[in-house]
Write a structure and sequence with these properties.
By secondary structure, this protein is an alpha/beta fold. The chain has seven helices and nine strands, in the order ββαααβαβαββαβαββ. Helix 3 (56-67) runs parallel beside helix 4 (86-93) and helix 4 (86-93) packs parallel to helix 5.
């Protein structure tokens, strides 16, 4: 098993400074998964270590939370497919009443915990959760999901999870980096939830700027 090589960076998020811990040897983790072979359960279940690095969609969602003042002191927040947990950490810095980080892979939940503890000195919740089997305790007033629409087979389970975890009068904010394969899914969400706004937000990371779709839905 590959040993994680962690590194910490300072990240500017719409006026906030966040300490973010990421994994420096992402390529080694990916090679390890490929080396297990196509018949290995981890390979077949696509346990790709996307959680190990920051993605533009997470940064765009975090920026949106700050710019739109989307978090109030009474807001409970759940991040779905948290990876490194940047949006959830920013929600905490903005004063959310409670933040819960969820991910399918325990390694991602562990990294989100490290990033929370690097920035805030108060408790948060960390749950291993498969969005094909959402946990009732992961319900919240504000659901966050960045870059979760990368497999067609996940689209319907994600929509079911949103339905089950969203609280009446709550909100769901999704960020997605303009993948063609996800455009129909976003359209389906917009039809299902007519009270929404869709914005294009630019996020820059490692010298690359990406236009990210941010879909903000009111339940």
């Amino acid at each position: 098993m590959i040993e994680l090589q962690k590194e910490a960076i300072r990240l500017a998020v719409a006026g906030l400074t966040v300490k973010l811990i990421r994994v420096a040897n992402f390529d080694e983790l990916l090679d390890e998964l490929i080396g297990k072979g196509a018949d290995h359960p981890d390979y077949q279940d696509d346990r790709i270590p996307y959680w190990a690095d920051l993605w533009h969609s997470a940064l765009a969602l975090a920026q949106y939370l700050v710019q739109q003042q989307a978090v109030r002191p009474d807001t409970t927040v759940v991040e779905i497919g948290c990876g490194l947990g940047l949006p959830g950490v920013v929600a905490g810095l903005l004063g959310a009443a409670e933040v819960t980080f969820t991910d399918y892979l325990p390694e991602a939940v562990a990294m989100a915990r490290l990033n929370w503890e690097a920035n805030l000195n108060r408790p948060a919740r960390f749950l291993a959760m498969d969005w094909r089997e959402p946990l009732p305790e992961a319900s919240a007033r504000l659901l966050l999901a960045s870059d979760v629409a990368y497999e067609v087979r996940a689209f319907q389970p994600l929509m079911d999870t949103f339905d089950q975890l969203a609280q009446p009068g709550g909100r769901l904010i999704i960020s997605e980096p303009n993948r063609k394969m996800a455009s129909g899914w976003l359209d389906a969400l917009r039809r299902k939830y007519p009270d929404h706004q869709l914005l294009q937000c630019e996020a820059g990371y490692r010298g690359v700027n990406v236009q990210v779709n941010v879909l903000d839905i009111a339940f």
